Structures are given as structure tokens and as C-alpha cells.
Amino acid sequence: MSGCFTGIESTPKITADDVKRQQAVASDEERFLKDIAPQQLSDWEKGKLFYVTDDKISLALEPGSKSYPKATEYIEFQSSHELPSMTGKPDTELIFLNQAGDEVRYRIQAPSDELDKRRKIEIPFTVETSIVDDVKKALLGNTYYIRTSTWFDDNGAALRGNKFIPVKITDVLPGNTVYPVKLQFTPASENLHPAYLYMSAGDAAKGARDFASLFYFDDPHKRYPNITDETWNNIIRGKVALYMTREECRLALGSPASIDRRPGISTMRELWTYENGIYLIFDDGILQSFRN
Predict the structure, then answer these.
(1) Which residue has the higher pLDDT, 106 or 192?
(2) Side-chain half-sphere of 224: how many Cα atoms within 13 Å?
(3) 3-state SS of 34-86?
(4) Mean of all residue pLDDT scores within the chain
(5) Are 115 and 41 in contact (CB under 8 A)?
(6) CB burial of residue 280 (10 Å; 0-12, 13-18, 19+)
(7) What is the pTM of this model?
(8) What is each CA distance from 156 to 56, 101, 151, 159, 198, in whole angstroms?
(9) What is the number of alpha carbons within 13 Å of residue 246 lying toward its C-beta?
(10) Is 133 helix (H, G, I), strand (E, B) or coil?
(11) Taking each helix axis from N to C terminus, what angle separates 246-253 and 229-236, rounded to the nearest 10 degrees?
(12) Residues 245-253: what's their mean pLDDT?
């Protein structure tokens, strides 16, 4: 007997990076809010506010203040000036007032003219409230289709919600140390308490959780006209059912951590594995077995 090589025998394991690869063309959602940016130091006016996200800010500020700001409080910019340093190049000291009326100071190892060229001045454990205000002007009162089922309550505890449903933005607040914006929303067609999402804005380094990763402008079901209402109801609840397609399962659960493809007698079998222990088994792209 002579052997044959089909190429299937050596099909490599596909990783999550392979699954998540997308086209480079920017969508309307990806372009939205891209003009929102931090203010340069030269544009800071007296009274500019920063929201404090953590009590640890006291470790970043200069010693000697009468009191230090606490989480959920605000500090108010007053002025900046240069100070001599050991390097021979001046440092810049930023002066703020906390809510107790005491001065607090933050020192940056760079002269003022160098700071003016930076895209952002990072004050540790704070949120620049001008960014929050700009996002609020753009989003407040609008309805979008939410892309994630991971919601949060007012205390930051995770909630299990539905995705791909319309939600109305009812408030925009300062966020946390990682994500500067906290969005309050209510499902447009369900009688539920407000929930929250955390979002990046004005900082390209944290773009993985920007507006485009959280919302659609239009009903995403219209993008998949062949998906039945029954199956779409499973998808928005993050559920899978037998005989769903790979695309339908991806919409319901997201991209898997890995995909293992193996040829059967007359079919191509795929095992999708998720980090939380969920696995799906497909034959020729149709779900045959799963653990959800």
C-alpha cells in the first residue's frame, strides 16, 4: 500500500491570537471618541480637577503636606514651577489643593518645556476629569448595543448580564486606576437596576477596552440575518445549544483560548477550549457536544 499526505495530519493547534485576528479597517465605533485626549500641561488652568482613585496617592506625592487626599476625593491644580535637581536638568513641581484646602505637591523629573511636548502628564492614582467630561458630552443619554456580558454593580462587583442588547447611558463618572471612565447604563427594554462598565479613553495604551470593544451603534443581529431568533436569544444570554455553528458559538462565548483540529473518518473534528473550563466539540463546524 502506498501512503498519501493530505496536509491534515500535521495541522497545528490554533491559538487565541489566530482566532482574534481581524481586518485592519477601522469601524465607525473604533473611530468614535478618538479625538478625546488629555490636556497638555501648558493648557492646564488653575482649578483643573483630578479624581483620586486610591489612598496610595500619598506615596507618590511629596512629603510634608498637612494632609493627603483620599480615594473618591478631588485635587485641584494650582500652579507649576521648576526646581533644581541633582541631574543638572530642572524638575517640575505641580501644586494642587486637596479638599481639606491643604497644598499637596507632585514632582516630575523633567523640565516644563519637555513636559509640554508629552501627550499626557501622568499623575499616579488619579483620573483627569476633563476626559470624563468629554466622554459625558458624547455619550450621555444615548442608546447603544452592548458587546459584553460582564457588567459591574456600583461597588465594582462583577455581574452576569446579557450582550448585544440595547442599553442607555445614564451617567458618566470617573473610573479607577486602570480605566478612567465609569459608565452607568440601564437596559433599554428590561426593568433592571443600573449597571456599570469601565472604559479607557484618551489613552491609546489602554485601547483594548475602548468604546469599540464595548458597544455597537446598530443592532448586531442585523449583521447575521441567517441566525434564527431562537439561537440569537441563546447568544445574548451567553449560552450554546447543540447544532449551533462555530460562528454562533463564538458570538455566544467569545473566542476560545485554543482550537485543536483533528480529522475523523469522514469529518473534521474541532475542540474549542476556554480558560474557564468550558469546551465545545464540533464536527464539520456544527456543535455536537459541549460543557458549558
Answers:
(1) 106
(2) 16
(3) CCCCCCCHHHCCCCCEEEECCCCHHHHCCCCCCCCCCCCCEEEEEEEEEECCC
(4) 89
(5) yes
(6) buried
(7) 0.83
(8) 19, 29, 9, 9, 9
(9) 16
(10) helix
(11) 30
(12) 96
Please, is 176 exposed, middle or buried when counting C-beta atoms within 10 Å of its C-beta (0-12, 13-18, 19+)?
A: middle
| CA–CA distance, 127 with 119 (Å, rounded to integer) | 15
CA 269 – CA 174 distance, rounded (Å): 47
Burial class of residue 167 (count of CB atoms within 10 Å of its CB; 0-12, 13-18, 19+): buried
Whole-number Cα distances in Å, 101 to 17, 60, 104: 50, 19, 9
- Cα Dmax for the chain: 90
Query: Grid coordinates in use for 95?
Result: 501644586
Residue 278 is placed in which grid cell? Answer: 468550558
Instruction: Give 20-56 pLDDT, tens digit per residue.
Output: 444 467 899 999 999 999 999 999 999 999 999 999 9
Of the candidate ranges 18-22, 137-141, 166-170, 263-267, the one whose mean pLDDT is the lowest: 18-22
pLDDT digits (tens, 9 = 90+) for 204-225: 545 579 999 999 999 999 999 9
What cell numbers appear for 259 in the block? 482550537
Band of pLDDT at residue 87, cut at 50, 70 and 90: confident
The full 3-state SS of 206-260, as one line of letters, equals HHHHCHHHHEECCCHHHHCCCCCHHHHHHHHCCCCCCCCEHHHHHHHHCCCCEEE
Residues in the chain: 292
3-class secondary structure per residue, 147-179: CCCEEECCCCCEEECCCCCEEEEEEEEECCCCC
For 209, residues 6+ apart whose C-beta sits below 8 A from its C-beta are: 179, 198, 199, 200
Using CA atoms, how far apart are residues 279 and 292, in angstroms rounded to an integer? 7
